[in-house]
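Two folds, back to back.
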Amino acid sequence: MAVAAALLFVAAALLITGLRQGPVLGSPDFTIDPDFGIPTPPHDTPYRSTANIVATAAMTLVGLTGVLLGIREWVKTRSWLPLMIAVSGAFIALPEVFFDVMGAVYFPWSETNHAYTILGREMPWWIVAGWFGYGAFNFFTFKVLLSNPRTKVLWLMWGGAAAGDVVFEEILLATGVYHYYGNQPLMITPQLPWWWIPCNSVGVFLAASIAYRYREQMRGWKALGMIVVTPMSVGAVYGFIALPSWIATNSTLPWLPTQLLGLLTIALGVVAYCLILHNVLGRPPFAMDFVPGEREAPAVGSANA
């Protein structure tokens, strides 16, 4: 069943991208820098003030929801870990710049909406708010893991996160708060290159899984470690799976190798998810009804560890 679904996805992706017009070399979205030989960011992309304000406010509210839920957990359990899991999402904004440079995504900014600059990239405040909002998903994932569900639930959760990411990003892209450029693989929907989907979702899943696995050790002030664990987890997943798509995006490769490199990133995303299930959570990835017992997958640092 899974193999058939994967083959169907590959066929659909190749058909859709084959029928769509690819990036036009020499256009504003696909101009190669003569010195570095990679696509140049479309600096003339207009900055849309209202869209940035709305996106910043909306994602801040989502992030605050995660923080409030984390505070509620602290009141109930006196554990700082859930709160730090929610807060730590905002710190993904730091490695985000490296993903953007390699993955060819540009954020229009203004002098009044400039949060920080890394690698010469000026970043608006909404990207900080965006990742702060993602912290709520980090918190939700951790709570699902605490419920000790069947492995099938974790696969469904990832599928739901992927589908939600497509809808969420297409809405944001339509407002113009950021823009993909270069030779992007897997442009299946209007503006989102689908190879990005597993990078973010698997990265946050790794962070939540590490928090779950080491929850007994990350008590008290040690919960502050999530401020490092979460951005490093997302960076680690990008490093493991994104290289094929980075190569394609920053090249002038023709259609077929470009799409195959994007599909390789998605395949590596599945591999990464399986490795997290097996090595971090102690779950056979394809045993859908498996529920780990305390003796099979204890928290590191617990009495049974």
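---
second:
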Amino acid sequence: MIWLVVLAVLLVIAVPAGYFGWRAFSNRESAGGAPHGKTITPGQPVTAQTLGEVDPATFFEGVAKRQMTQPLARLKVSHFDDTQKFLSRTGNWVIVDSAIDHKTDKYYFAQTFRSSPNDDEPTSAICKGGKSYSWSHIVKKWQVVPFDSPECYKKPYTSTGDSLFSSGLTPDQADKALKTLRSYDGFVNPAKPTLLSAGGRTYVRQVVDFKPVLVGDDQGYAGTAITMWAFRDAGEDPVSWPWSNPWPLGVGIHAVYYLDTKTLLPVAVFEKGIGAPAHGSDKPIPAPGIQVINYSFPKTLPAPVLNNSPQYLSLLLPQGWKVQ
């Protein structure tokens, strides 16, 4: 029975979300200049006082550019259709662990499927040599999955990104992406960063709201479409890269970032959809979904290892599993 569940999930996540309109609705305005307020860069003291002095927009653009210009990013991602599923983590809770080297098109991809937070025997799957292997709780070893697993022989789409920024870009490409984001007035809204101590570790916490905005000649609201357009304007194709986005293109994102105090790169982010209001004859666009991402930035692509362990995946939220 678990294979039927896993197969159903894989069939769903194999479809690239939100791609079909990525060219149709873009209509840019004149881009504003880059913010030049006070900020902190890696290596400088990170204290409550220094954070209190930074300009939120300048600081966040620095974070975003650092993320985009990392050669390689490894993300662990879970998306939940609604708040209740997020809070309970029931109903086929999936964690995807992936890293894509866009220079070589090689990638790492693994998943854990749980029925609840207390599931004692989750299903783990990992790609190796173009095949999917799953941990058997009966024979206590990895076995080849007995059905087609396209995520193991072509770059996967869903749950391989954070819907906002992609690593692997050059500094010039990152600047072009940020310029596009600025051109949609009111879309990026960073709050003042603060220090947070949790779980024996200190983070920089920054809330950034990517709010839906009206675009073009009465084309309606755009939200996550704008981050996709920014990626396109950086010179990359959101389809072939690929770009992962579980939300409708008109929906925004309320993002709570947790940054490493030394690198000022994301460690984790909590994302909640921001719905778009009604406009003209268009109905409101609801956004009930929640997404959680953990980040690391390795120097090399992880290698799949089939050892004597099921290698269950987990996710960290520094402030706990709650709506933020």
